[in-house]
Amino acid sequence: MSLDWIYYAISWILLAWHGAWDAIGVPDGAAIGSNWAWILAIIFLVVTVRVILFPVFVKQIKSQRAMQALQPKVKALQEKHKGDKETLQKEMMELYRKEKANPLMGCLPMFLQIPVFLGLFHVLRRLDPANQGKTLYGWTVTQFESASAAKLFTAPIAGKFGSTAEELARLGANGTTVKIIAGILVLVMMGTTYLTSRQMILKTGWAEDPQQRMIQKLMLYGIPLSLLISGAIFPIGVIIYWVTNNLFTLGQQQWVLRKFPPPPTATSKPGTSARNPVQPARTGGLLGRKAAPQPPAKPAAPKVAGPKPGAKPVNPKKGPAKRQG
What we know:
2 strands, two-stranded antiparallel sheet, mainly alpha, single chain
């Protein structure tokens, strides 16, 4: 299956935003070692895609809420059909159908963004001055040459941490600078990817189902760690896209989680905040910094009212007994 339609679509959005920034006066030349018209074009490619996918993202949150509310029923089915996986699977599918919950909806926005990522990766990887197909996917020669010379703090957006000496020579780039800029961006990419997963788990709690919990752990730890290796082959422009996408996700998730808060769990009491009992809430926001424990307050000594002036003692001590005469 040809992916040319994706490459044409990504190129059209990228070139349209670059033309818009150029039209309003953003200089196409380098400022602070960066060609901001192209950098902003990549950033607003993210904005365009996320605006298009926003209704899908809201459906994802609603589906996750429905799945979380069904956890007690799912657990009851697991206990009822323990050892009978076929019957359990049928009962769970019937439960999801009846309650209109889709387990796959939680991954749909991510899957829909994969073609965009692959399209941008392919388009930026072609930004090589030696490339003969400069007018492919709707580009002009002028646009291609301008993009291939675009830099972020003197590092070409087409360069990557693993660029060969020959590739760097064609791009007119310094290898040390490219590695420093790309390395910093890869670390930021890993950190923001971790925070987006952590934000969702802190708000919704860990799943009780072992398989779903394994997926959560993979999203939280596995994907950020994998970026340490795969990030070496990503062009700097692609990493800019990824980091911007993560920052957009953090803000969007915060808004949606406030608008669609998690449902109360079965163990929650009226008037208390809804938290998954499997993963208690942590204080300190996304970074999970806990406040220093406060020492328990000492009980105050009971106050004893002093006798009023001129009053006789309530329990006077008895003196020595008088001898009988």
